[in-house]
Design goal:
By secondary structure, the chain is α/β, with parallel strands linked by helices. The chain has a domain at 1-77 and 188-234: Rossmann fold, CATH 3.40.50. 39% of the residues lie in helices and 26% in strands. It has helices spanning 40-48, 70-76, 93-99, 104-108, 110-120, 122-126, 137-150, 167-182, 194-200, 218-222, 225-230, and strands spanning 2-11, 14-24, 29-33, 55-60, 63-64, 78-81, 155-159, 186-191, 203-208, 211-217. The strands form two sheets. Strands 6-7-8-3-9-10 form a six-stranded mixed sheet, with helices on both faces. The chain has a four-stranded antiparallel sheet with strand order 2-1-4-5, with helices on one face. Helix 3 (93-99) packs parallel to helix 7. The longest helix is centred in the last third of the chain and has 16 residues, at 167-182. The chain starts with a strand and ends with a helix.
């Protein structure tokens, strides 16, 4: 579904991604894990068109998309949830969800999409008229996930969804992410909470200093000596 080949990305003269290659298949959850500053968010921004790579290629459903404007990437079926969710604070929950149906295709199916989102996240329906800024951290992240679904993506990308949330809320969010995969949406999950991410992912990549240093089946990465020592404290 998604393929990065030798992708490098820089901010000015500072290279952040260095010849990164990875693949995501249909109905997969793929985790990108690593320390803060490793380049994980830059990878998502490169895929979504917010940043252009300096070299390499990004392909989605067999079509090269590097250099494509973000709104066109969204139309193709890729939706990104930024760190912290970033809902529009002075808009209601329902207004935020409607903003997720920005693309022409999604706008035509807004009613059906809202029904599906409310079925997945019943709390959002209960809080439909509530301003987003009054929600808790976990509820804001849930709203961001719902807004992502309103675009009817083939691939959903989540940037640090567990950041700043209580452990019990983190568990609920990861359960929701698994449900999205069950609905036929491929997931690219960027996460510092490495254990949680690898426990729900099918495969994973370890990113260090802008390079992929390890990749494989998630269960194999969980018992890898380097991962255990560097990230799990074992």
């Amino acid at each position: 579904m998604l393929k990065l080949t030798n992708v490098s990305t820089a901010y000015g003269k500072v290279r952040v991604l260095r010849e990164v290659s990875l693949e995501i298949g249909e109905n997969e959850i793929v985790a990108i894990v690593g320390a803060n500053g490793a380049g994980k968010s830059t990878m998502l921004n490169t895929i979504s068109g917010l940043v252009n790579p300096t070299s390499g290629s990004v392909e989605f459903l067999g079509k090269r998309i590097d250099g494509t404007p973000p709104y066109e990437v969204l139309e193709l079926g890729i939706s990104q949830v930024p760190e912290g969710g970033k809902p529009f604070p002075d808009m209601t929950v329902q207004e935020n969800l409607e903003m997720g149906a920005y693309s022409k295709k999604a706008w035509k199916m807004m009613g059906k999409s809202l029904e599906s989102v409310y079925k997945t996240f019943p709390l959002l329906k209960e809080r439909g008229r509530q301003l987003a800024r009054t929600l808790s951290g976990g509820q804001r992240q849930m709203l961001a996930m719902g807004r992502c679904l309103m675009s009817r993506p083939r691939l959903a990308m989540f940037d640090e969804p567990s950041y700043g949330l209580a452990p019990v809320v983190v568990g609920e969010l990861f359960t929701f992410i698994q449900k999205l995969r069950d609905q036929g949406i491929a997931i690219l999950l960027v996460e510092q909470n490495i254990r949680h991410a690898l426990e729900i992912a099918d495969r994973g990549y370890v990113l260090e200093n802008g390079r992929i240093v390890l990749e494989g089946v998630s269960q194999d990465l969980l018992v890898n000596d380097h991962v255990r020592k560097a990230y799990l404290g074992l």
